[in-house]
Design goal:
The chain has about 280 residues and is mainly α. The chain is built from 16 helices and no strands. The chain starts with 5 loop residues before the first helix and ends in a 9-residue tail after the last helix. This is DUF2059 domain-containing protein.
């Protein structure tokens, strides 16, 4: 399940915004709660569990977002990042939220598709892509594939673009990435990680000024990421996937999954910022 496109994590790599999204989501899905065992199975069959695990890979980008290097935080950096982005803890958080928000109807609908032969093949390639740590190589390969499609006028590129929009619209991705960045940077500022304190108003203004560039970057990265991820999936199967993703029930599932994943990412980055302030600085890794 490609919920948060990995490009968004790489681009970074809200309490107000994300909690507002979750509040609206809960109001929209007042159906009966789903039991924990079925939710556990849901994480596995849809691949959402692996998507959550992949959030940990984005921790490597935290120092760069502050204009620093991992070596600036000494020998404790790796352990701190692994501790904060604990995969079991992130999955538990997701389960707690899903218990309160995901209806039985929506779970059944999404699980039925992803449990199908096509669904499981898609989950397999998505999981592999999520956990690929060499982002540069993946981006290079994806961009090369897109270039080849453009040269031969392949309509596959339109299907890939439709997939990226269906799972995570540009406006939602841009706002969420901005808020995750904001929460991390402000937490780092308040914790004393940065030499100079940041002004939230000025930072938001800067983000608004750069929004067009971010939108283009996310769109381009999402498309190349999709080209890489689904490189061995046929056009017919991708069209079938796109049609499944367009269904109203699946759209609601993805709205919820995106909200959950963005909130977990944002909260973990906030915690990481506080931990970074406690690390011994200047030691060699």
């Amino acid at each position: 399940m490609t919920v948060l496109t990995q490009s968004a994590a790489v681009a970074m790599r809200p309490v107000r915004l994300i909690l507002a999204i979750l509040a609206l989501t809960v109001a929209a899905f007042p159906a009966r709660a789903v039991d924990r065992d079925r939710l556990q199975a849901f994480l596995e069959v849809t691949g959402f569990g692996v998507a959550l695990d992949s959030i940990a890979l984005s921790a490597t980008d935290a120092p760069q977002m502050l204009g620093m290097q991992a070596s600036d935080f000494g020998t404790e950096w790796r352990h701190a990042a692994e501790d904060v982005f604990d995969t079991e803890g992130m999955r538990e958080t997701a389960l707690v939220i899903l218990e309160q928000t995901l209806s039985d109807e929506l779970l059944t609908h999404a699980a039925a598709f992803y449990a199908s032969p096509l669904g499981q093949r898609l989950v397999e390639v998505e999981n592999d892509s999520h956990m690929t740590e060499d982002d540069a190589a993946k981006a290079e390969r994806g961009e090369a594939l897109i270039g080849e499609m453009v040269e031969r006028g392949d309509q596959r590129i339109d299907v890939l673009r439709g997939l990226t929009t269906a799972v995570n619209g540009d406006d939602v991705a841009v706002r969420a990435v901005q808020e995750v960045q904001m929460r991390f940077l402000m937490a780092a500022s308040h914790a004393g990680v940065l030499e100079n304190e940041l002004d939230e108003g000025a930072l938001r203004a800067l983000m608004r000024a750069n929004e067009a560039d971010l939108r283009v970057s996310l769109s381009k990265s999402a498309l190349s990421g999709a080209a890489y991820t689904y490189r061995d999936i046929s056009n017919d199967d991708l069209v079938a996937y796109l049609e499944a993703l367009k269904e109203p029930q699946m759209q609601r599932v993805y709205e919820l999954m995106n909200a959950v994943q963005y909130e977990i990412m944002a909260s973990r980055f906030e915690v990481l910022a506080v931990r970074m302030a406690t690390l011994n600085r200047g030691q060699d890794l």
